[in-house]
């Protein structure tokens, strides 16, 4: 049972770590923003599904815009 659990966790971890390898910087920023926004939305609304989805959507938009803001300064 423990070995199976470790195998599943290891497989998922490898999948998560390699999933972003082909993404552009904008896409990575949007994904990170969506993750952070989803967690923040869940915390602020007490675990509400609507708050989680709303936070993820707003975080994704902000994360996507971060690359645009930083690339203009260069």
Structural class: mainly alpha
Poorly predicted ranges: none
Q: What general outline do the C-alpha atoms trace?
A: flat
Topology pattern, helix = H, strand = E: HHH
**Total number of helical segments?**
3
From the alpha carbons, calculate the radius of gyration and give it in angstroms: 16 Å
Which percent range fits the helix content? over 70%
The percent range for strand residues is: under 5%
Structure summary, number of beta strands: 0
- How is the main sheet built? none
Query: What is the straight-line distance between the termini?
Result: 53 Å
Regarding quaternary structure, how should these chains be classified? single chain
Overall pLDDT confidence? 83
Task: Describe the model.
With 74 residues, this protein is mainly α. Helices cover 82% and strands 0% of the residues. The longest helix is centred in the C-terminal third of the chain and has 24 residues.
Which tags fit this structure?
0% strand; mainly alpha; 74 residues
List the helices and strands and how they pair.
Blueprint (H helix, E strand, L loop, with lengths): L1 H17 L6 H20 L4 H24 L2
Helix pairs in contact: 2-3
């Amino acid at each position: 049972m423990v070995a199976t659990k470790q195998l599943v966790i290891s497989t998922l971890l490898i999948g998560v770590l390699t999933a972003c390898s082909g993404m552009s910087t904008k896409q990575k920023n949007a994904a990170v923003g969506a993750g952070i926004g989803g967690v923040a939305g869940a915390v602020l609304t007490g675990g509400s599904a609507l708050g989680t989805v709303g936070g993820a959507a707003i975080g994704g938009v902000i994360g996507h815009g971060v690359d645009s803001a930083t690339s203009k300064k260069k």
